[in-house]
């Protein structure tokens, strides 16, 4: 029995002696392999695959005169947008030109060229999921300095960003930046005129078109945004072709680093241009407006643009018919 016990212990010793050194070597190899893997800090999420971002741009939105009256008659301040709201709301980012300032002072505007949108009319922008508007246009000061301030405050209170005007002149030229799908989109906006023939002075809080200033603004925005959109309110009303000022300003914006230039003011559509790797939408015409006296002012366009990782992938234009019940996609 004694010799048998010695034999069993010897075999066990031989087995463990060969097994544990092998296990030790395996652990060393495993630790070495793990050390070569990328280090992920505690709590840091794994990187997500980049996504396409769909942007939609619309033209002039004027919620005064007939448009405001029609909304009041319908008992629905969002009434003018109901025909296009689902399409706009489905975008990752939606942009329009806000052609009439908001104000809680004064009576509703029934006629004339000095616009005032009642505060309740912002419900249309909210229904359509508008993310950012241009407030730099020739009607920006139609309700005076109070209207400039009230419009900015009212938009902010309702979660809509404004580009082109701000509380100070410096802030007006800083623009706004909105993040979507891992990309930061910067918006700057400018107008050829801010007085509408009603003011003899210049309000620095509303950005006016100047190529040198715009280029500086774009350069300053580049570290903050992967994609820069420049809005310009310019051109000759009812002209189907862009003028020299529009072309020079838009080309300079793309050369400075903008990817998209979107235009408005002519109230009719103008042919777009691909330039320098970017897209220039010279005029998208009207979107919500009451210019029923001309056939061409009752047809606008919505621009659909897809981007990924700061690159312009593709784009298309969709026709919009504008009637007394509001715009409808054709």
Task: Give a brief rundown of this model.
With 330 residues, the chain is an alpha/beta fold. It has helices at residues 2-35, 65-74, 85-89, 122-127, 144-157, 169-172, 211-221, 244-256; strands spanning 53-61, 93-98, 132-134, 161-163, 176-180, 183-191, 227-233, 260-264, 269-270, 273-275, 278-281, 283-284, 286-288, 299-308, 311-323, 326-329.
Can you walk through the features of this model?
Residues 1-20 and 28-48 have low confidence and may be disordered. The chain is 29% helix and 27% strand. The strands form 3 sheets. Strands 1, 2, 3, 4, 13, 14, 15 and 16 form an 8-stranded mixed sheet that branches. A 6-stranded mixed sheet has the order 5-6-7-8-11-10, covered by helices on one side. Helix 7 packs parallel to helix 8. The longest helix is centred in the N-terminal third of the chain and has 34 residues, at 2-35. The radius of gyration is 29 Å and the shape is globular. A hairpin with a 2-residue loop joins strand 10 (273-275) and strand 11 (278-281). The protein has 8 helices and 16 strands. The chain is an alpha/beta fold.
Fold blueprint:
Elements: H1 2-35, E1 53-61, H2 65-74, H3 85-89, E2 93-98, H4 122-127, E3 132-134, H5 144-157, E4 161-163, H6 169-172, E5 176-180, E6 183-191, H7 211-221, E7 227-233, H8 244-256, E8 260-264, E9 269-270, E10 273-275, E11 278-281, E12 283-284, E13 286-288, E14 299-308, E15 311-323, E16 326-329
Helix pairs in contact: 7-8
């Amino acid at each position: 029995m004694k010799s048998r016990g010695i034999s069993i212990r010897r075999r066990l010793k031989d087995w463990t002696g060969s097994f544990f050194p092998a296990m030790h070597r395996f652990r060393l190899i495993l630790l070495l392999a793990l050390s070569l893997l990328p280090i992920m800090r505690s709590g840091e999420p794994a990187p997500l695959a980049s996504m396409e971002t769909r942007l939609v741009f619309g033209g002039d939105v004027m919620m005064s005169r007939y448009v405001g009256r029609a909304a009041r008659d319908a008992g629905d301040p969002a009434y003018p947008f109901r025909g296009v709201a689902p399409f706009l709301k489905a975008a990752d980012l939606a942009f329009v030109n806000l052609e009439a300032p908001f104000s809680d002072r004064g009576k509703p505007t029934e006629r004339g060229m000095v616009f005032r949108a009642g505060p309740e009319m912002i419900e249309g922008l909210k229904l359509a999921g508008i993310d950012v508007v241009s407030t730099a246009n020739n009607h920006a000061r139609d309700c005076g300095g109070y209207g400039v301030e009230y419009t900015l405050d009212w938009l902010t209170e309702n979660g809509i960003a404004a580009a082109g005007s701000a509380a100070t002149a410096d802030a007006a030229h800083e623009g706004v930046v909105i993040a979507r799908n891992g990309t930061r989109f910067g918006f700057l906006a400018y107008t050829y005129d801010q007085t509408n023939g009603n003011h003899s002075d210049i309000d620095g809080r509303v950005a006016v078109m100047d190529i040198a200033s715009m280029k500086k603004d774009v350069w300053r925005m580049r570290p903050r945004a992967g994609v820069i959109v420049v809005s310009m309110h310019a051109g000759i009303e009812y002209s189907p072709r862009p003028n020299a000022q529009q072309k020079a300003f838009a080309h300079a914006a793309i050369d400075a680093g903008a990817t998209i230039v979107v235009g408005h003011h002519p109230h009719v559509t103008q042919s777009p241009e691909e330039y320098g790797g970017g897209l220039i939408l010279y005029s998208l015409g009207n979107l919500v407006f009451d210019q029923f006296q001309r056939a061409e002012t009752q047809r606008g366009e919505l621009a659909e643009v897809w981007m990924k990782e700061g690159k312009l992938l593709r784009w298309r234009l969709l026709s919009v018919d504008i009637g007394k019940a509001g715009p409808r996609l054709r």
